[in-house]
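Forwarding the complex inputs:
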Amino acid sequence: MIVDEIDINEQIGEVGKILGSQEKKRGILIHALHQIQGDNGYLPEDVLKRLSKNLSLSLSEIYSVASFYKMFHFKPRGRKIVRVCLGTACYVRGSKKVLTTLENEFNVKNGETTEDLAMTLETVGCVGCCGLAPVSTINEDIIGEIVGEKKIETLISSIKEE
Amino acid sequence: MERLKSIEEFRDLSVFLGKEVFSPEKNMVKICCGTACTATGSRAIVRVFEEEISKKTLDLEIVKTGCQGLCQKGPVMRTEPYNYFYQRVKQNDVREIIPTTYSAGFPVRHLLYRDTFLEKPIEVMEDVPFYKKQMRVVLRNNGKIDPCSINHYIAVGGYGAAAKVFSSMSPEQVIEEVKRAILRGRGGAGFPAGVKWMHTRKAPGTIKIVIANGDEGDPGAFMDRSIMEGDPHSLLEGMLICAYAIDAHYGFIYVRHEYPLAVKNLRIAIKQAEDLGLLGKNILGTGFDFTVHIREGAGAFICGEATALVASIEGNRGFPHARPPRVSEPGGGPWGYPANLNNVETYACVPQIIENGADWFLSIGTESSPGTKVFALTGKVKNTGLVEVPMGITLREIIFDIGGGIIGNKKFKAVQTGGPSGGCIPEKYLDLPVDFDSLAKVGSIMGSGGMVVMDEDNCMVDVAKFFLSFTQAESCGKCPPCRIGTYQMLQILEKITSGNGEKGDIENLERLGKLVIAGSLCGLGKSAPNPVLTTIKYFRDEYEEHVRDKYCRAKVCNLGLLKIEQEECILCGLCKQACAFDAVKETRRSFFIDQDYCTKCKACFFACPVSAVKITKQKYIRLAEELEIPTEHIEVIERRSRMTLKDILESKPHEIVTIHKDRNVSDAVKVMSEKNVSGLFIVDENNKLVSIFTERDIVRCVFNNIPFDEILERLARRDITIFDPSTQISPAISIASRKQIRHLPVVEGDKIVGMVTFRDLVSYLLPEICFMAETMY
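Prediction (whole assembly, two chains):
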């Protein structure tokens, strides 16, 4: 989405009829942030500044919303985003071990990105695949049943390959 | 397809599609394309099927269904005709399935489900134990239809309820029907949906909004996901009926951003329904307008709370606000408009209630909670996945019959229901019928339906810490009791699990937990201490062990003392390699752990191939050195000394032998001789304990010349000592010796539990006494 050409009425849809102009602008804010993050991988400051102008919301308000939600990031992120599920089901089946192994392997802590921007390591509450616990995701791909050294090694090598 | 202009046109289409789409002559393969099966490769299978079909020009239709439930055995699929159920299908199997099943009509046997390797394979899905006890109401279409095809949904009777509502029911009648069905909100609290609808309808103002809560943030729960992914139209139909009932024209579905497939399928479904005139303007020519919008969350658990969700829809930070105003009242919903907010599963129930009537719904489940509930059964059970069962089924049936029991035949320890807001339920409540009220009674909640099973290898303190760290991180920070209280509780738990627990920590946790519940603004804070409080309630000894003995019986926390058992050690040296701190030392003939260097990381414990590395309590080692008894024996002695009378009764075959108070002495002697017991319970008409009759009473009769036809009631002693089942062995022995009694009647309330004799007590301590005698003297 190009920030300068947001069509607010189109984004908000039918429900816009019952809303004031400011309510409409606020209503699409989270959606717009999703779009920006989808395009850039994170929320760059200059884009947010332009968004602030277009939606006539102060920059601090935009940051206040964006910083509340865990999904939004303000720093560039790795090409591969690895999420280790720490949901209950995965946790009881040993996802903590997966996390520490990855942390040691790539020398990053949970939430950090490697220096060469190859990967970002994150944890997630639940990806909804508890049947396959413990689960990790690499970008959109789900990798399940990571039990035992061998499976962890396969996970690591699939993260490393470009 | 053209837009439908009237209800008659819809009915015609429905009849047409019903005959056409799923005609029995058609060859179909229904492949699960839910998230879990996609992760195990179902897309690749679909691709191979497509290739084969186009190559051989087969008459075979592929139906990509939503989650079929048995995620663990994925990818799963069903064939039509024959209805064979295949599990763990691989790409190469496709070339075998097509000729075997579709040409010859045989099942591919190695893909069929088997309980164990030795048992016969099961051909159809309905006979698989996992599905046998299930009852599919909400998930009725999951696994049968293609979620991306509105034709499939209409062909199985979809939107029929909406047509019925538009053609023959007034909004009041709809609400009355839902109210009468006692449809309780499936999101957790169990508030009756009909009452909520009525409330929203009566709220002043002409603009109302319908909201579906699909922000399923509970770790370990994925039923809303499977409805939105596998049967999105049933959600839309439920919302449409609700909109008609409360006269709303706008709808929102709030979906987690983590569910991209759900968002995609919902978008397709909304588009299809709008094109067909089942959503949008002038629905089916009735003049009713209803548009549905999707709002994506952005990773905030708190947004599952009603008022926070509303704030998020408006585009604000997801802070909850104080109620009233409720969401259904003016000023409470988005932009101040009254709104009806229900869980996705609740809406999915509605079309079935309208179509089959409230009486049908009431006939399923329990009196106060009719209907079915979808549970996400996960954790240490053999079969994990989505199960839909009628309310009132017992936990045991869900875990052991449907779930197939615990992996590796380990011992069941607890089941956690309701996600991070729920509680842990111990083994003694396994026969509890599951509904909203019964779960609340034991301190847990139904929640959205997550069910995580834990076995003996799970440490309850660690589990509580995990849940609390989740809620602590997800606390929005608006009100201090939740923000600070959960943090402090987490610090205490951290202290306990790292071996620095002090006396009073457990009490502090309980006190803090109650304060957080009392002081928090919204449901998140009010329920956050639940996992801690229930684990303390039911597993207090485990907490005490962590604090007092610095020991974790599940060997999860880094506690306890590591020691190499010399007799079992095979001197392979793996422990020495595994240790990163050089704590494992080597002598000419043995390995041992230098406690000064040991960090209790347990690397050696996991490395040892013969489990010769033991983790024990510190004091056991000390005792073992002093008394020269192996630590296992001390463990046994300690465990036995903590046993209660109830444990004794349960550990031996016992029968409660009773006799009515109006019978006479010779009757009693006869019964005692027949049953080979030395004491009887004398009971009245209601089976209530009056007294006991023992061998000593017979001696008394003979000595005092009391005739043997004397009625027992007149002989009965009134001053008998009764024991509670929870009495421990040593106090029981001391009471019994002081009072000089040999028969200990165990009674719980009014119920007779059993008779413990002095001999039982002695025989329980016998092994230790013998052992002591042997080794020490």
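The radius of gyration of chain B is 32 Å.
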